[in-house]
Nucleolar protein 58
Amino acid sequence: MLVLFETAAGYAIFKVLDESKLQQVDSLHKEFETPEKANKVVKLKHFEKFQDTTEALAAATALVEGKIGKNLKKVLKKIVAKEAHEQLAISDVKLGGVIKEKLDLSCIHSPAVCELMRCIRSQVESLITGLPSREMAAMSLGLAHSLSRYKLKFSPDKVDTMIVQAISLLDDLDKELNNYIMRCREWYGWHFPELGKIITDNLAYCKSVRHVGDRTNVATTDLSEILPEEIEAEVKLAAEISMGTEVSEQDINNIMHLCDQVIEISDYRTQLYDYLKNRMMAIAPNLTLMVGELVGARLISHAGSLLNLAKHPASTVQILGAEKALFRALKTRKDTPKYGLIYHASLVGQTTAKNKGKISRMLAAKAALAIRYDALGEDTNAEMGAENRAKLEARLRQLEERGIRRISGTGKAMAKADKYQHKRLQRRKRKRKREQLKLRNQKKSQPSQR
């Protein structure tokens, strides 16, 4: 039997000298306690050394993907093919299938082979001559770093890391912007309180404050690029009769610096949102069409990755983000939540409160299919998402129209119910009249007690 053993330095082919010892799997490690004992069990037949780290990385990545590299194919043809009657022991079943298919060599993989590989690894420095232990350790470390970098770069699970980071940063920017704008409005409101009521848009407010500075400059400042004409006229009128306090030039400078920060962060947020939208359309186009960029990115971020999200059933996708409410409902035996992050999708938002549960359930079912198609499918088109969204919109219109018919009372079901109610009321009236007549006749038939 021959053994194919992969190291960081190269490929090694060992010949098993005593195959009977492989049958004792539990005690095999005792035969490799010392280098002398190990040399009695296996003997090095050939060693193909890698020339550099690039070659070692190419061979390692080929093994990870279950492929045969050029060096390995050369070694197998050169050494193993000469002894075709010998079985080749390998550590990977997938690789064994490829070798058998491509080179027509008999491969074997069993618990005994796995134990033999572990034992060879423990004495590899003594079994492979001409390789110092320091050089072997350096090559192993270099290959480990290169292989980890390769996996991180090309792993399909890590492609959506950018989306997770982008949506988290977008949420952080929204919080910071809200704090900065609130601080700016309160701070400048001491000097010109009327401006906050006239200009409701936060970005336009900060830009106006940045252009104006002190309210006495409003009359001579042109705000036509920022505000419409009627609002600009209203601002100039309010500045003349403002009830705000006087502030120093240093205060105005600090407020203007704060406005600069708000404007810069707002511009960066717009740029980040465009980036997130493009990344979502590239990685998960069907999910994006179903629930939107932000909701889709939040679902991916909450699950950890697109592949993890694809493993969740539709019922989990529906309540993803509402874990606290779910466990609280289970603990108190109340109704479980109908939606989590999916509540913010446009399809759920535009329906009535009565139909939100139904639409969120249907949307979660279709979104789960879209997620799996994006994560595991080979196509990158969004036809499936567009088709399912059209079906959901048609179903939404049907539910809304049914609700309108019930409210107006023109539906067949309502007409039948009214007819049934009318007949029942007539029967009750006739029954009440009969009872009244009966009581009246009884009173007349009773004799007078005088």
